[in-house]
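tool_call: predict_structure(chain=1)
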Amino acid sequence: MKKIIIIVVLGLLVFVSGCKVGPDFVKPEYQSPAEFRYDSITTDTVVNLRWWEIYNDKTLDTLIRIALAENKNVLIAAARIEAARAAVGYTRADQFPTVNVLAGVGGGNYAGGGNIANPQSGNWFAYPELVWEIDFWGKYRRSTESARADLLATEYGRRTVQLGLISAVASTYFQYLDDISKWNISKQTVESRDSALSIIQARYNWGVVSELELNQAQIQRAIAAVTVPVYRRYVAFDQSALSILLGRNPDTIVADADLFNVQVNTDIPTGIPSQLLERRPDILEAQAAYESQNAKIGVAVAMRFPSISLTALLGAASPDLQYLTSTGLAWSVGGSLLSPLFQFGKNKRRVEIERYNTEAALLNYESSVLQALKDVEDALITITTLKEELIAQKERYDAAINAEMLSMQRYDRGVTSYLEVVESQRYAFEAQLSYSQTNRDLLTSYIQLYKALGGGWISEQEEQAAQQAATAP
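tool_result:
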């Protein structure tokens, strides 16, 4: 009979402890557009893109690999993942009984009541204690759900950091190439204007040209000379910024590539907008945060119901240590129920707080989706318009260089004034700098699209895992 009762009680405990109050998580649905407005390639997705092949630049490839391995923010994100993983185990342990070992000794001759003639007495005891708060309402299981979702969010958070790091390294690298290009343009322009100034100076010394023309030549030389230390300074700043992104002390970064020789080998296939919901890490992170917060509603609801705890003791006690093991076993089994009664709406308000927090988490998820769609659309239109802009800048560049040469020839022949030469030199210098900057902007816009789409494979191991999953039966 006792066995039957025990079996029934255990079965009831298992059945009841399988219940969980609070809403179960339902993946949010979001109606995204069928396609991107400015996309011409939808047959594939960026998931199948190797980012290191976009620019075919060995230096950039190496910089990104070092940054992913040594950047401090990435290492911080990795540490947070390990902390979240430990938190899952820590929270899950609350579902199971706690076993403690208690032992003690006491003695004295005072029994109370003012009688000090009592003989000396002692007390020795040792026993394990089991304490178990039965998870009737799923409080601890909901807490574990929340911890698991937090772990997932930190993993997506690390990927967000990685994508941001790749974008920052690439953008800074192209800024570095652009500043090197502008530095070289400035130095070449100074050399060219030094030659022109020498000729004008000689002509002025012979009384052929006026002092005004000499001053104009000196001004044009100085305008170019001013930019040389400026871009030299920018180059140093770029090297320091890249070094910090690599997780290293500021140092020299050697770039073998020339900005005008870096080419994007392929258009980035964007896929369809709905794929962003499964691919972009900040969206997945927001979804995991929503799931975590949703589980906290169940925790709050469970706290409105009674908590039942079981306590069991099994051990030995004796007035003398030598008889501790010879005395019979002492045991004790008990239960307790603790239920909130009057707390002036505190428990109800706790549930409301978690529900409103969950609503905010859902809205944050939807906001992340909207921002992701905007990022992709902005990147697509940026690439399209920058391609057109680069063509126009190249035409301007070629025309300005040719006009500068023709103006100098006309001036040498006495056909025009030196003012025309000054204007042509200014246009040519500005056209060269603008052409360099537009090249940089176009190269950077591709990496912004890569980031907006949620990236491709971060590592070769990730690529191999994806390929194995695709070919698995």
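agent: Residues 184 and 280 are 39 Å apart (CA to CA). Proceeding to next step.
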